[in-house]
Amino acid sequence: MEDIASNPFLRGGFCVETRPAPCSLIIFGVSGDLSNRMLIPALFNLFHKALLPDSFFILGCGRSQLSDDSFRQKVRESCQKNSLPNSKLPQLEEFLKICFYNRLDYATPGDYQALQERLKQMDQQYPGVCDRIFYLATPPGLYPKIVTQLGQSGLTKEAQDRPSSSRVVVEKPFGHDLQSAVELNNELLRYLHEHQIFRIDHYLGKETVQNILMLRFANAIFEPLWNRRYIDHIQITAAETLGVEHRAGYFEQAGLLRDMFLNHLLELLAVVAMEPPISFDANRIRDEKAKLLRSLRPFSAKEIGKNIVRGQYRAGQINKVDYIGYREETGVARDSLVETFIAAKLYIDNWRWQGVPFYLRSGKRLARQTTEIAIVFRPVPHSIFAPLSPGDLAPNVLFLNIQPKEGISLMIQAKKPGPKICLTPLALEFSYREIFGNEPPNAYERLLLDCMLGDHTLFWRRDGMETAWSLFTPVMEAWEKNPAQYQPALYPAGSWGTAEAENLIQADGRYWLV
Ligand code: NDP
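^ thats the input. predicted complex w/ NDP below
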């Protein structure tokens, strides 16, 4: 019989999952939307998969007066609503036993002293639990206040023998512009070291985003083609059918540039375009991402409005359902100039990518929910299939489907049965669901686990974050200074965005593939 272990083609795979050391997770703003829809269900799923540490507890914090039991009832409801098939019920009761609640006013020093006492008591109940992770799931204005209180009460102090025994997870948005991001970093770094800070971007927790790293750096066949010689251009689309939903207050301040573009799309761009890191180590990967972001060509004043365009959805239909326009949504100003759509053309000034355009597009209330990257290769240099010319043969395209149909497909030209010369594009496809049988894990599961492991690979580092802001802050300033000139063009809900976004790519003789 074939020796599977010694035959590299038959090996079943190589999996490394490390169970984190005992720790506790303290969630500020635990009554909020993020905790209910994302964090609590993700934690329950990790519990169900036996991936949480042997000794572990969750302490939810908020301003309401709640007993542990009433908090557990909220956790139960959140799990049932978001993640729990009935079969898991016995595990849910077990999970609830590690959930606790602590009332706290975010700016009151005495409440942090009380929190410290409570944590000390709980550490006694949970043997070996020394590491603490503080998750800031509150409105962003509270981040500096909470970290200051944590710092002043000694809760951010690291144990001498365990650097990063105290960690802080910071949700997006991380600042409002370059200056506020720098100020926020300075505030956090008064009480924390960089290695204690986990700036979260949930896009990076998606399996398919991580798979880009595996595709590029665990396979030898792609890297030689991954450059200006073989790649014509790259498109990244992150489209949502959802509108602003119940988050109008936040979105009116943020807009799509801050909400999606500057973080999620740039992260996808960085993972696709960065140089090979020397190892799968958090700082080596983040070095390469930061280097890549620094190579992005800033938009000149002339290019704003041409190479970066914005839009706002008006009323329209998606799948025959009527939707109102952005300005009609509850909580949105009737004359709002906030963008719900952006398309941009970016260039990377380095040897690998010189002259290769990266077309990025993202928006709300678009025709279909999808996040996809299309790597479009150059056409064949010469056609031997006369009368077809090279331009008649559709170029190869590698699609990396991030969500919802997670997978990879490579478009190739193949012969169609029949006449002697009859070519047609075909897809070589790999679907996560078909191969692995179930949905990829929720991104927050991966990210929470990585925080517990102290692994920063999927989190923003200060330099990368500030570089991203420095690229887009001049654009936002131009929009704010000249609202009439740059007001967002309207697009109907259910379309693929504005005419300007079509022109942006068609002017180069190309078109959006998604
Ligand atoms: P919420 O608006 O739901 O607020 C979370 C909690 O913060 C509230 O339940 C409340 O808890 C507490 N809070 C304290 N002060 C205030 C205040 N002045 N106004 C409102 N709430 C306050 O936020 P989300 O849960 O939606 O988001 C939390 C963080 O995560 C934000 O920074 C957000 O940008 C980010 N985020 C959220 C996503 C989402 O899908 N919701 C997605 C990605 C990021 P209590 O009353 O118990 O003290």
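The two ends are 47 Å apart (CA to CA).
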